[in-house]
Design brief:
heterodimer, A: mainly beta, B: mainly beta, four-stranded antiparallel beta sheet
């Protein structure tokens, strides 16, 4: 069965600092991997996704993530945090076989300090 | 496009009452998903439909929960009778086509409180 582990339920960084949100996955088949962001009182919005085309994936709002098969990781980074990045971030894995089901991690709440 | 539309946005009800949550997917999307979000269990997939047909309902917690999709533009999630432990945010999402790589578009959610 597929699973996702997000290390750190809460991450706090200063404005302008590097953002690093960690995600490790478990999958018996080549996975599709996603990062979603949830702003307060809103639904989830796709930040970026890995579909095997390239290991370094660039998303919206300056975020990117690198797929590392050897480490079974898909960490999300942003070089310089902005106050508007404060939100909850979810990593998710999907079955290559196309079962459509997304399995989400528990989420990481990102706080930006001025 | 207006995106995925959910109603109501907030629902407060008393234990034992029937609750119906509604969802309108993005036009042309073939897949519709219902999720539940709680602090304890995170985001859980309850059920999903393909072309209005339920494909996987293994996440539906118990018989008190039921979901229907009578046409391509409307789905309901019903809880009868409701219990306090059903309090959560319920999200509806839709996606365009088959393939696990396709993005799911989420609605704003319905925050359900069962007293």
């Amino acid at each position: 069965a597929q699973s996702v582990t997000q290390l750190g339920s809460h991450v706090s960084v200063s404005e302008g600092a590097l953002v690093l949100l960690r995600c490790n996955y478990s999958s018996s088949v080549p996975p599709y991997l996603f990062w979603y962001v949830q702003y307060p009182n809103q639904g989830l919005q796709l930040l970026l996704k890995y579909t095997s085309a390239a290991t370094l994936v660039k998303g919206i709002n300056g975020f990117e993530a690198e797929f590392k098969k050897s480490e079974t990781s898909f960490h999300l980074t942003k070089p310089s945090a902005h106050m508007s990045d404060a939100a909850e971030y979810f990593c998710a894995v999907s079955d290559y076989q196309g079962a459509q089901k997304l399995v989400f991690g528990q989420g990481t709440r990102l706080t930006i300090n001025p | 496009d207006a995106g995925v539309i959910q109603s109501p946005r907030h629902e407060v009800t008393e234990m034992g009452q029937e609750v119906t949550l509604r969802c309108k997917p993005i036009s042309g999307h073939d897949y519709l998903f219902w999720y539940r979000q709680t602090m304890m269990r995170g985001l859980e997939l309850l059920i999903y439909f393909n072309n209005n047909v339920p494909i996987d309902d293994s996440g539906m917690p118990e018989d008190r929960f039921s979901a229907k999709m009578p046409n391509a533009s409307f789905s309901t999630l019903k809880i009868q009778p409701s219990e306090p432990r059903d309090s959560a945010v319920y999200f509806c999402a839709s996606s365009l086509r088959a393939g696990g790589y396709n993005e799911q578009f989420f609605g704003p959610g319905t925050r359900l409180t069962v007293l």
